[in-house]
Amino acid sequence: MKKFRFSLQSVHDLRLTQREQAERALADKEGEVKEAATRLAEMERKRAAAMRAYAELMRMTNAPDPQEIALRADYIALLERQESDARRHLAQLERERDCLRQKMIEAARDAETTEKLRERQYAQHVLETLRLEQKLLDEIAMLKIARRMTQ
User: Does the pLDDT value for residue 81 go beyond 70?
Assistant: First the structure.
């Protein structure tokens, strides 16, 4: 029996490699997104704590120090800018993740296409092999019959 050889095996191998790379890149980006979301949540907690401390200062003190008020207000403004930057960074990472997800889907679809083609070619190979074997068996049977008739 002739050994099966897929005519597009190198293409299929390349597509499998591309799919694996796309999956790894997507997983890495997912990690970055989670990390950025965690940082953003921490910044939100810091800002909320600073706002509570500022409100507490204003409530507890009859005549708060203007310099203390200015420092706390500047600190809160800095935290708000950092939080805004973190939100933009997170949104950018999410867009990149969505792009990588689309690429991974395309790579998986391409690999699946060549896999299905490979399966069809293998099924055709098996069918041709079975036909050839049947033909050989028929020929052997015919030769056996012809030999009996000549004896």
Answer: yes
